[in-house]
Design a protein that fits this description.
The complex is a heterotetramer, with two copies of chain A and two copies of chain C.
Chain A (H helix, E strand, L loop, with lengths): L9 E3 L7 E8 L5 E3 L13 E5 L3 E10 L12 E7 L5 E6 L12 E9 L9 E8 L2
Antiparallel strand pairs in A: 1-2, 2-3, 2-4, 5-6, 5-8, 6-7, 8-9
Chain C lengths: L9 E12 L6 H16 L9 E4 L8 H7 L8 E5 L4 H14 L5 E9 L14 H4 L4 H16 L3 H15 L13 H6 L2 E3 L2 E2 L8 E10 L14 E9 L19 H11 L8 E3 L5 H10 L8 H6 L16 H5 L3 H16 L13 E8 L3 E8 L1
Parallel strand pairs in C: 2-3, 2-4, 9-10
Antiparallel strand pairs in C: 1-7, 1-8, 4-7, 5-6, 8-11, 10-11
Helix pairs in contact in C: 1-2, 3-12, 6-9
Classes of the chains: A mainly beta, C alpha/beta.
The structure holds zinc ion (2 copies).
Amino acid sequence: MPVSVDEKCLRLTGDDGTSGTLLGMRCTECGIVVFGPATFCQSCSSPALEEIELATGGVLYSYTIVRVPPPGWPGPVPYVLGEVELPEGPHVLAEVIECTHDALQVGMPMTLALQPVSMPDVPGSERVVYKWRPAM
Amino acid sequence: MPVSVDEKCLRLTGDDGTSGTLLGMRCTECGIVVFGPATFCQSCSSPALEEIELATGGVLYSYTIVRVPPPGWPGPVPYVLGEVELPEGPHVLAEVIECTHDALQVGMPMTLALQPVSMPDVPGSERVVYKWRPAM
Amino acid sequence: MTQFRPGRDVYVVGVGLHAFGRFPDQSLSDLARDAVVDALQDSGIPWTAIPVAYFGHVYYQGMSVGETTLAQLGLTGVPIINVENACSSGSTAFWQAYWGVTSGVFDVALAFGAEKVPGGPVTVTAEDSPARYIGGDHMMAGYALRMKRYMEETGATAAALAQVTVKARQNAAMNPYAHRKDTYSVEDVLNSRLIADPLTLYQCCPTSEGGAAAVLCAGDTLDAYGVDRSRAIRIAAAALTSGNYNGRGSDHSAFSPYRTEPAALQAYEMAGIGPEDVDLVQVHDAATIGELQQIEALHLFPYGEAWRATAEGRTALTGDVPVNTDGGLLAMGHPFGATGIRMVHETVTQLRGEAGPRQVENPRVGVAQCSGAGDVTTVHILTR
Amino acid sequence: MTQFRPGRDVYVVGVGLHAFGRFPDQSLSDLARDAVVDALQDSGIPWTAIPVAYFGHVYYQGMSVGETTLAQLGLTGVPIINVENACSSGSTAFWQAYWGVTSGVFDVALAFGAEKVPGGPVTVTAEDSPARYIGGDHMMAGYALRMKRYMEETGATAAALAQVTVKARQNAAMNPYAHRKDTYSVEDVLNSRLIADPLTLYQCCPTSEGGAAAVLCAGDTLDAYGVDRSRAIRIAAAALTSGNYNGRGSDHSAFSPYRTEPAALQAYEMAGIGPEDVDLVQVHDAATIGELQQIEALHLFPYGEAWRATAEGRTALTGDVPVNTDGGLLAMGHPFGATGIRMVHETVTQLRGEAGPRQVENPRVGVAQCSGAGDVTTVHILTR
Ligand SMILES: [Zn+2]
Ligand SMILES: [Zn+2]
């Protein structure tokens, strides 16, 4: 069975690791939404949070082409890192795949993409990672 | 040429790494002596320090037989660790070699011994290390 | 001796713990957060009213872990400061919180700490230190050297030293937060495998994980924060010292006992009490010998007599000077960032009369003492 | 907003630096000690008169490094506290020292810091963090995201951003402590290799080593300590904030600009001045974009206009708001524990009129600002 890179941020919905949903928490007091787990609201500290499924896409708030990767980066170099603003408010940072560098533009629509990633030479390290790809 | 494990604590005097002297600093204001380098006196903070050569032996203040070694320990296990009080005052902690465990006794005279030590699988890591052995 | 100037009275108004043990599925932040939530709830003061927080931890687990942890409770923008002082990291956070409140900078402060200590011998120097060649940087070997010398000088018996562990485990058996709850006989302790002669495994604290938190509040603002005065415990003294030159063993200070004395004397003076007024004590028993030497350094027993007092049961829950009533480091383990505040937790719980089966009879004065590499010592005195 | 209560006036009475650069033969303690000796000498106050010390550093290099370092100056027994707040570790030590003195706990305090930053991209999470799979924990990639967005929103040109480095190197060329002293043209900066588009190598601070120290003294005890009043520089404000929820980017706070605003507003209020009174500024220019956004967050320029002001030379030594007069992080490098105190060193040196060839004309008010992971921000205002 495929394993999510972070079960509290990404819930896999199928058995093959190709479908899933980003998770967030909404405060029922003040309405703000955050990406990933939370016990208390980041804005008002209320514990009245409910888990929600986030939109499967958003717009590209900013991006960069990383030419010197961070330690332990298991992917190709260079890679594109994109910060996507979801309609619910949160920004989600992830690799942008299947894109042409020159075609990237702030404001362009992006859609969620899942890919398996393994750490080189670490058996059992495969995780399903959330990424972005330009929307059709 | 042999290299001292810490040139400010142990000065090698020959070319073969078998002879050397422990170094200390004496405060010309208050007279206290410390083992190893110092810029200011530990007791009175005076900068008036002079380097001295320490005695080549002392008495065993305490000892233990270490059965679970610290990370990176390059020697045999178990090993004996001895705290020796020098006539000048300082205590110097080091491995006790060439001893019978049952014959060790607090208060027994000890004498300086030098041995080369290498870190396993680290080329060029050989250092001459100060140790103690029971005095004849 | 450094003279600080205490100002307002300061109280501990809330304490919280995450259980001590092994929690592979919980991060450092998880341990810390749970303890904080517990302490806030105990105090009745909400997170949004806390103006400052001090977080104690040692090992690098990412930057600004205090901030990352408390961000989970809401981004309130307050100063959060991560502090490290070896085994005294948690108690340093508490000390800092105390001085901030007594001096009037803030009315309330949060002190918390957590640690995930890896297994195996604990060292205090960097990996590339010459100590790796010399073999002397080994916390338990240091305690073994102290133990050998103490036994030689005082005539302390192996059985008396083992009794420290026997007592710790008996106390821990009544403490749901303890890492090790099974009890042992003196023979069990002496027959456990040797780590560094004469120290056996059961005489060394386990490597553990855990979290602890405390909320402090100025006495003149207790009512403004709606604090239950009947459960507020006053901080009568807060002392923190580094090494003093003492003419012996300064070259190998980690192995020199009785570094605690200057901090203890400062604390007694600040509290206006003496060792004879102390009703219960938590001390730094990373190894059995540690407990004996610390209670002597605190002047609770004359030099060389703590082992006999222990053998006679005087440091047990029912003795005249109960020591490490929650099981101490020997049974709780020693998550560096949490330990000092865990001691405050136990002292407060006892002084409130809320310690259940391990309650000491009607205590009024409690002492918490931590020691750490770099010759750091903290002594805190709490009173009802 | 949290309201703290300043008490007595506090002055910086001594500053010291160890040069910034690469020093493979010197330990973290060596760097720190040299800076302390320098600062003590500058202050005229001997180590034996210092009642407390705060040491800022980030990476684990053994426990209690502050204690180990100061033990070399003599074992005086005073409290020594190691603090960590990511890139703001040094400024946090300074902040803590200030509040201890202003509140009357001590008359004098030592703040110092040092770091040996390893080469390669800087990350802020632990090694086993899911961030390793996601690729987002990369300090310079974070700055690149901010830069791309800023250029998009404001029309800032690549040349204006590069000018930040050009200016930094010009200033550093007059600073004997700087890591990088060679100067560059805008073309050199833009043609250096790409790290994370659009950020090029020369727009990123080098990874460096260094140490810094400052001695603080209460105004009402300057004479008692024999301090030369003509060289004492007053601390008019000391603010430290963690993250505030601001409705945007809180999920990726490391990449959210303008976190500095709350700390800046607190500091201006505390000092009783406004941005228009500021004569020179040191800000957190870990990358060129950082300087532009920080001077906007400090309200020295309106949002989106700092790049133009830079291109026009207004932030140069001869401009109306000289920024990073010693070369900043871009030329000094960024040893986390030292940086914040290095900024105090430069501000004090300028306000004393002792900055030599890089002296700003007759400055009276200087600001030092640091940012760090965990959304830590410090803002200190110093006045002559
Ligand atoms: Zn809310
Ligand atoms: Zn002296």
